[in-house]
Amino acid sequence: MNQDEQRDYFELQEPEYPETVPSVLKHKYSKQVVLESETSGLSNTISAMQSISISMPSAGNKIITVVDENAQGFSINGVGDDSCPPLETLGNNAEPKAVMFLSRPMSKGSSISEADNDSQRFKDKNFDSFKTWSGKLERQITSLSGRSRKFDSEEESTQNPENEPLPVDRYFDALEGPELETLRSTEEIVLPDDKTWPFLLRFPISSFGICLGVGSQSVMWKALASTISTRFLHISLTANLILWWIAVALVAVVSSIYLLKVILYFEAVRREYYHPIRVNFFFAPWISLLFLSLGLPPSVSSNLPEPLWYILMTPILCLELKIYGQWMSGGQRRLSKVANPSNHLAIVGNFVGALLGASMGLKEGPIFFFAVGLAHYLVLFVTLYQRLPTNETLPKELHPVFFLFVAAPSVASMAWAKIRGSFDYGSRIAYFIALFLYFSLAVRVNFFRGFKFSLAWWAYTFPMTGAAIATMRYSSVVTNVLTQTLAVILSLVATLTVTSLLVTTMLHAFVLRDLFPNDVAIAISDRKPKHHRKWFHIRHGGSEWSKDIETFLKFANTSNNDIEAALNISNDEAKRV
């Protein structure tokens, strides 16, 4: 087949031109020739053209530039057809073979690219598997607006709104570290790791720790103003009122954000709930509400209705039935497997609830929760001391979580004192345990230095505040200069800690914007990765494999071009080299 037979002409339709383009220029100036090559199997596009470029500014005078095949060009400044020259000025009388390009330059600083990025981010399908409706609502809105969209069949097959919850084995296989928040090097995540995820996906349940810290401060300042041993400070209840409203605002904001996460990204919330460590933080919202009830200013209300206590304790009881049952029943969620300082959150709710119930005049309910909390606290305390699973130490970023050891005994001492009506020996035993744990951690200054700020720092606040309140209760019974000074010092330390952490949290959240990184713990895949033999497996492999690699590296620079031949050299020969 010759070259002429290979040509296939496609006649271009006459383009639509703006009204300002002269009618003499509205021609079919070009034809595009497509040449298909038999040898390469590819299509080469050959354009035989003389380009006529017409540049149309967005405002002002119209500038038309025409370039013919002899590179003769001219510019016409003016508006409309009246300022255009006749066709003869184009040069040749023969009909030119050209293509007309109409361009409209954009002004500098255009925001079109930014708008495109926002639009792509909104329409990004990478996060549909975590959306509550998996993109169905968006498709319905699109169809109602009269626009049709084509979805990839493979993408549709991956969007399963009825995904089964991940088994607990996957969390242990895919994640590592005491908090199970670090992805293993052999694992992959189902969400893109090269971009920032939506804010709701990065907002963890552990954010309620902020509410715990500020809410406990309102309780502490109420105790400072009302306790007999600290009345010499002449503290007004106004501080309690201000802190209480701040705590209410924080609880409302954090709860609203997480409620949006439940509504829009329910799969992410479900993965947090099935996470063997994160599930403990689901107690935090209800404990925060208990603190708000305990710190209620007298000017707002002097008495709380008894049904409120049952409403707040019902979800805590439901969570305990699940968590404690898993601790006892064995399997991957047994206590010796998932033991972590954050498990204290599943315990301390019993003592805070018992304290509130006894303050409201209830009897049986507070004793019930106190007994349940005491039994499981003893088991947890021993388990955490032994560190049965792997004897791993917490990374530096999670060292503040150790202060949760102080929370349960300090609140338990106040709860038992309220139940008994006096700070008796049982309350003092619990208080002394909390005080010893507090100082044993406080003296280890280097233990809490040199690590990056994170939400785990809020673990400082709630236990420190609880210890300060318990010290005030104890100083009311044993009143002397030592106990009063200790109560004031612990209260001051707790207040400064909460204030500094609140400011630092706002700085990282709104200025530096690094408070909420991508939460890889909820994005692990439900399938185990395919294991390949990699170099870093040497340290876990057999001795023969290590010797083969060592031998190969020794003979890598020799004249042997065959790798297998180098590996077949005996180890004795390798040692002589």
Structure, described:
- By secondary structure, the protein is mainly α.
- Helix content is 49%, strand content 8%.
- It contains 21 helices and nine strands.
- This is S-type anion channel SLAH2-like.
- Residues 144-168 are annotated as: Disordered.
- The chain crosses the membrane at residues 199-221, 241-265, 277-296, 308-325, 345-362, 368-386, 398-417, 429-448, 455-474, 486-512.
- It is a multi-pass membrane protein.
Q: What's the number of extended β-strand segments?
A: 9
Helix content: 40-55%
* Radius of gyration, taken over Cα atoms and rounded to an integer in Å: 36 Å
| Low-confidence regions | 6-15, 20-94, 101-115, 136-144, 147-162, 532-545, 558-567, 569-577
Q: Average pLDDT value? A: 74
Shape: globular
Q: Would you summarize the structure shown here?
A:
Helix content is 49%, strand content 8%.
Set down the secondary structure blueprint.
Elements: H1 3-6, E1 7-10, E2 31-36, E3 43-48, E4 50-55, E5 62-67, E6 73-78, E7 98-103, H2 112-122, H3 136-144, H4 153-158, H5 168-174, E8 175-176, E9 182-183, H6 199-202, H7 208-226, H8 238-264, H9 266-274, H10 284-294, H11 306-329, H12 335-338, H13 345-359, H14 364-386, H15 404-420, H16 425-442, H17 461-477, H18 481-512, H19 543-554, H20 563-567, H21 571-576
Parallel strand pairs: 4-7
Antiparallel strand pairs: 1-2, 2-3, 5-6, 8-9
Helix pairs in contact: 7-8, 7-10, 7-17, 7-18, 8-9, 8-10, 10-13, 11-13, 13-14, 13-15, 14-15, 15-16, 15-17, 16-17, 17-18
